[in-house]
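Hi team, as promised in this morning's meeting, here are the two structures we talked about. I've kept the exact order from the run log so nobody has to guess. The first one is mostly here for context; it's the second one we should focus on when we meet again. Sequence first, then the predicted structure tokens.
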Amino acid sequence: MSLSPSPDSLCLRAQPLSEMAESRALVAVREALEASDARRTVWIALSGGLDSVMLARLAARAVKDCPRRLRLVHVHHGLQAANDDFEQLARRLASRLGLPLSVRHLALAETALKSRGLEAAAREGRLAALSTCLVAGDSLWLAQHQDDQAETLLLNALRGSGGRGLAAMPPERALAVGEASPGRDQHAHERARLLRPLLGIPRHEILTLASQQGLQAGFDWCEDPSNVDQQFDRNYLRHSVVPLLQARWPQAVASLARSAQQLQEEQSLLDELAAELLAKVQVSGAERLAQRQGQEQGQGLNQRLNQGLDQGRAHETQLSLAELAGLSESRQRLVLRHLCQSRGWPVPPRGRLMSLQQLIATPPDSVAEVCWANAEYTVSVRAWRGQLWWQVSDTVIEQGVRHRQGDTGYARSGRQPGETPSCEWDAEARKAWRALGRDEQHVAFTSRQPGDVLRVAGRGRRDLKRLLQEADIPPWQRDQLRVARMHDGTIAGLWHPSRGWWLLAALTQQ
């Protein structure tokens, strides 16, 4: 399909925005504008299809009554020849409406297409590209409507989704902006808002409104050729299943969308319960610090030399096995899923979830690990010393193969994808040593070696392995330890990313 008419003829058949009749869609868009922050930008995702074109036109009309800073953003997928036509129409419509337009060109990696599939990879890539336009506090508007909501509920039901999936698409949610470290929450001021103002509007009303405005397919909006390809599940539902449902139940779409809305309310209550339970089972950074300080005082170790670095350890996620074991199995699953969903981590598949519950019920004597991954993150959970320790890192994909542990659910401890290599720990240790004002000319920063010992004040010579155990550093993190080794082999200090230089020979020798 090609848009052959001249640029001047495109979009000119439409009636002026000032003549747009009052409608439920216009009211919904106006209310969304009124609820937005007047100091921030409202970005409208413009694909070039009917729904997004109408959302842009409705917003351009509503902004006359409720002044806001509007911008359009178009993503060129590069997946088919028609994408060039979509971009042309987006530029012409932006000019017609007098709104600035940003265009993002999306290049989907072959590995992402293989691992996620075309639909999922394109959807995730599109949202990531759209998010690059945003700054904290902005809004991104998508044009999904009531029919899309009904289709999403059906799709998720057929995939065996739980309550969250059946709740389908929320009308609004937070959207991360900028770079976020794996496993770290973004605060409210680091987020934007994703809105779907037309989610309660059936598509036939959007079509009617477009007809009233004199819009025509091929002139004022593009028909995506892939939308009729029923090899895609959503298209099959849209063209073959939903019409049959509506023939028997004319209000099928509205009823399904209403069910999704009710499930969203119920899911919100479950989220509140899950958050309360998570707060009870999570071991806080302050608690861990108090535990370690108590151990050190009882054992006569010197106080921490770098409290600032130790605060970074408070960001680690640890759950109490005893508290988790006190919950019913259904509440355990609720808490574990909620932890992942609230942090943006991949939710464990059912098999992994059962493995986690086995760790809770019968913690092993040695370190055991359960892991899973998606295209973005790898999650590793280990049971050790009465706690579940969570580690999240970037997933590394090379030559189409995702690097992760085997499919058994349990795996040996080891270096995870995205983990900092040893040379970087050496550099960090040297930098911290320099910050202490120590002479670095006669000292090397290396990993620990068999037989290494350190003379500890009041205790004499102590093996490094025992010192690591006393410091409550998990076995899988002990390879990160760096020692300041003098030329004669004497160890001058111990450094760890979570502790800094917490033992120095010059301060511990008597």
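And here is the second protein, the one for discussion:
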Amino acid sequence: MRSGAFEIATEVASVAAAPARVAERAEALLSPIRRVVPFEAARVYLLDMERRAEHSLFFEGYDEKVRSYLDSPHHLDDIELLGLHRSGPPMRLRDLSVPRKRSAPGRST
């Protein structure tokens, strides 16, 4: 397995150093990554939260509806809501301030 990991790391390094456009290298990285982590869909993009902008480099496996959402301002809102734009660990769902359902009179939760 170690030789397989070394082979994949070498392939990733050569793709990253290749004299190709960033989008072409992003797409080429999916092949070695797929050998480690199988997936049916992928997106590689650049994120600039200071400007609230993202730039998709490559999509694979998503339908048009999902792609439309991923390229929308709503996706940026969700990134902020979950804390994925911060340098620290992402926020957990249970940390979100979601209004709690009120119990019926005479019942406790």
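Starting points for discussion:
The mean pLDDT is 80.
Helices lie at 2-17, 22-36, 64-70, 73-82.
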